Amino acid sequence: MPQVRRVLETALYVEDLDRAVEFYERVIGLGALSRGDRLAAMDAGEGTVLLLFLRGATASGVSFEGGRIPPHDSAGPAHFAFAIASGELDSWRGHLAIEGVEIESEVSWERGGKSIYFRDPDGHSVELATPGIWRVF
Q1: In terms of CB atoms within 10 Å, which of 16, 35, 81, 102 comes out highest?
Q2: Total domains, the chain
Q3: Residue 127 — φ and ψ, nearest 5°?
Q4: pLDDT tens digits for 4-59?
Q5: Sign of CA dihedral 92, 97, 100, 101
């Protein structure tokens, strides 16, 4: 059976694309790979991409010279996690405090990993996770 190598892209649907891009650049430190009216692609590190879609802008799909992307959209808050180094958890706590981002929850996992959770401007649950939360991380 062919094998999946990793998740390449994760998509979030946002109400205000400018606000979302600004948050992920300023608070998380992601850089924009591309930007348009309906989508911003953000470099999420180590060959991964966070796609920020304007909610409703992709509900009919999109056709272009190279093919067609099927329709997709979402409502309500989503959840995803960024991997961070174990030794950077305290630095992230301090950085989030400086940025005025409230930590909603902290978890210590049975494998030794730790997570902190907070919300982005669209209410999505963002997790910063250290190694030891999963067998594979």
Answers
A1: 81
A2: 2
A3: -115, 135
A4: 899 999 999 999 999 999 999 999 999 999 999 999 999 999 999 999 999 999 99
A5: positive
The string of pLDDT tens digits covering residues 57-93 is 999 999 999 999 999 999 999 999 999 999 999 999 9
Q: Give the C-alpha separation, 100 to 27, whole Å.
A: 9
Tell me: do 82 and 49 sit in the same domain: no
CA distance linking residue 128 with residue 101, whole number of Å: 13
Same domain for 96 and 49, yes or no, is no
Q: What is the pTM of this model?
A: 0.94
Instruction: Annotate 38-93 with DSSP letters as a single string.
Output: SEEEEE-STT-EEEEEETTTTTT-EEETTEEEPP----S--EEEEE--GGGHHHHH
Contacts by 91-100 with C-beta closer than 8 Å and gap 24+? 92/116, 92/128, 95/27, 96/27, 99/26, 99/27
**Assigned token pair, 116:** 């902190």
Query: What tokens appear for 18 in the block?
Result: 């400018």
Indicate which CATH number applies to the domain containing 40: 3.10.180.10
Give SS3 for 15.
coil
Phi, psi of 119 (to 5 degrees): -110, 145
